[in-house]
UniProtKB/TrEMBL annotation:
Pfam families: Anti-Pycsar_Apyc1
Keyword terms of this UniProt record: Endonuclease, Hydrolase, Metal-binding, Nuclease, tRNA processing, Zinc
Signal peptide segment: none
Biological source species: Sylvia atricapilla
Description of how the protein assembles with itself and partners: Homodimer.
Known cofactor(s): Zn(2+)
Full protein name: RNZ1 protein
Length: 210
């Protein structure tokens, strides 16, 4: 399995002329997975050798602005670059802390932005020990009872106590999990674990050849 990492932004708190806000891309077999999407990420993508249209998954570590304020703009740009049949493509999967779905839904609604492609937001439910008690905010009841669609589809993911992690996705080659981090707000790290690959040696033929 071929993996390539490109750092689009490594700045903390705010971008600078020479360093973008947090964002990196993992390229895997023709797909691009984006980790964090700070302000200006789409501009950094244009300066890179990567194609934004190949982004199929986005992972947001936490809801501080320098890690996700670039997300609505990036989605709108992807939509503008989409082909007319983009609505039939597989959704762009977005993973992040609880509250991310509401943020995206409201941002796109208020700006009258209509995406030509489907997307899904999968929210990680934090535990109260992930940040100082006075900073913890429960977004689980946001938008409840407003009598209208609650934004894009997606799963709500809870911590697996046995694994002490969140299972995000799994295929024949790898498993992707999120784990809890302690920060001023609930935060998550992401682990991509490649599955063992059986060898292709012909043991009997090796023995026959000594």
């Amino acid at each position: 399995m071929s993996l390539e990492v490109t750092f689009l932004g490594t700045g903390a708190a705010f971008p600078s002329p020479s360093r973008g806000a947090s964002a990196l891309v993992l390229r895997r077999e023709g797909q691009c997975w984006l980790f964090d999407c700070g302000e200006g990420t789409q501009t950094q993508l244009m300066r890179s050798h990567l194609r934004a249209a190949r982004i199929t998954k986005i992972f947001i570590t936490h809801l501080h602005g320098d890690h996700f304020f670039g997300l609505p703009g990036l989605l709108c740009t992807l939509s503008l670059q989409s082909s007319p049949d983009a609505s039939s493509r597989a959704p762009v999967d977005i993973y992040g802390p609880l509250g991310l779905r509401s943020f995206l839904w409201r941002s796109l609604e208020l700006s009258h932005s209509q995406l030509l492609f489907p997307y899904a937001v999968h929210e990680l439910v934090p535990t109260r020990d992930q940040c100082p008690e006075e900073e913890f905010k429960d977004f689980s009841s946001w938008d409840a009872g407003e009598g209208r669609p609650q934004g894009p589809p997606g799963r709500v993911l809870h911590l697996d106590p046995g694994e002490d992690s969140y299972l995000l996705l799994e295929d024949e080659q790898l498993v992707v999990r999120a784990f809890r981090l302690f920060h001023r707000v609930p935060s998550f790290g992401f682990v991509l674990e490649e599955k063992p690959r059986p060898g292709k040696l012909n043991v009997q033929k090796l023995k026959d050849l000594g």
